[in-house]
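Field notebook, page 474. I keep forgetting to write these up properly, so this time I am using the form the group agreed on. The chain and the ligand, magnesium ion, are recorded exactly as supplied. Prediction of the bound pose follows.
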Amino acid sequence: MAAPWRDVVRDAAAVREAAAVAVDAALLAGVLMRTGEQPPASDVVNYAPFTLFPSVVPRALFEQAYAVQQDFNMLVDAISQNKEFLEQTLASTIKVDDFTAQLFRIYMQVLEEGLAQTVVLGINRSDYMFDCGLDGTAALRQIEINTIAASFGGLTSRTADVHGLVLKVLGKTEEASHLLPNNPAKGLALGIAKAWELYGSQRAVVMFLVEDVQRNIFDQRCVENELWNRNIRVIRKRFRDVFERGSLDASRRLYMDGQEVAVVYYREGYVPQNYDQQNWEARLLLERSRAVKCPNIATQLAGTKKVQQELSRPGMLEKLLPGRPEAVTRIRATFAGLYSLDEGEEGDRIAATAIADPESFVLKPQREGGGNNLYGEELRQVLEKIKDSPERTSYILMDKIKPQPALNYLLRAHSPLQVSECVSELGIFGVYVRQGQELVLNQAAGHLLRTKAIEHADGGVAAGVAVLDTPYLV
Ligand code: ADP
Ligand code: MG
């Protein structure tokens, strides 16, 4: 679908002028990140990378993605309560993947002790690309669902205004008026606030668990400030702080520096590099506590790629969401082909197929954060090497999604202004709160569009590959 501003994409003077306006507008609007050179400093910042133009997104697919979000919330929540499913699904993975195995050990340990946590808060982001069929029609295909530390719900709320201004500068005032308002941070804060309220202690705080280096702090501050606006206290701590100064009382209430913690919101803890022995101990302490963890360890495991792959097996969704055939249909309609590499005939067959045709697949390990997947020739080589070893079960295979590229400019500090062929990935934020067995909140909270140049097969905004964008619905 051609963009209504295609006439100006190659107009160098117009583009230069619009880019200058866009960068200043982004800085004014708070589309900010700390810099790679001075990551701990908030007095040296720059704009977070973003596209010059909004990107065209088919309205029907956008609406489809929103319409299935409550179903995905329900599904993740159901998986997180299904010990048998998690045990069976991850059995082969945890034999070969140490990180998943360590998460799983904590999961089993807290179940054995008995859960002190009675209120559950889930914040996730389901990501999609638009697969272009042979006849040119696009289909919504889920890439993955992120159940921990799903980011950019804050910064993305500020890009629509920037893109609106760009379109006006380019004489596209009518088009500018069609850009949708979007504020995921508000929706995420609503969920956190609800969980805090149900926890039931006025004095208790919300703890953001953050990384040592926090380049994306402004994105987090958007959520944080929404909570302060509701008069909920927020503290920011690292695993190390929890290890040194966190404690549980007799009823497993969590205390940090003498303050009771109602909700722990993880913006950390999703990759092996986030953990040393002390951090694992801190994680266990948090999981054992009564505090509402977002996510709890079970929900983090529900977001693994192995779980995603098992969900695509015939009959699996029906088992997990009994009595909800419409939800099952909506969810399944977004699935791409997903394949197990477990030992046995099924795995042997798909491994051979992928080695013969590596351009049609993506090889994914159980990792988050971008830059871990394998494509093309590299996929072929790695799979060839591990195809007869148990190591292959630490991966899954997925059909490669092939979106239709479009021209855009990726605005990055200190980078030249040049046109690129780009593809986009749409994320929908979901938030839900459960008290005991009752789902008291279940919503889609907003969207995120990220766009990257086609020469990069993999990687998100934090990984320095994709940039923030705004959907323009057609
Ligand atoms: P991560 O947890 O590292 O974010 P993803 O599954 O989201 O892992 O993959 C990272 C990136 O790789 C995605 O943002 C997307 O650009 C690309 N990607 C992932 N799966 C596919 C696929 N099936 N087809 C095409 N590109 C993909
Ligand atoms: Mg991803």
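OBSERVATIONS:
- Residues 12-336+408-473 form one domain.
- The pocket of adenosine-5'-diphosphate (ligand 1) is lined by residues 127, 143-144, 336, 362, 364, 367-370, 372-373, 398, 400-401, 425, 458, 460 (CB under 6 Å).
FOLLOW-UP: compare against the apo run.
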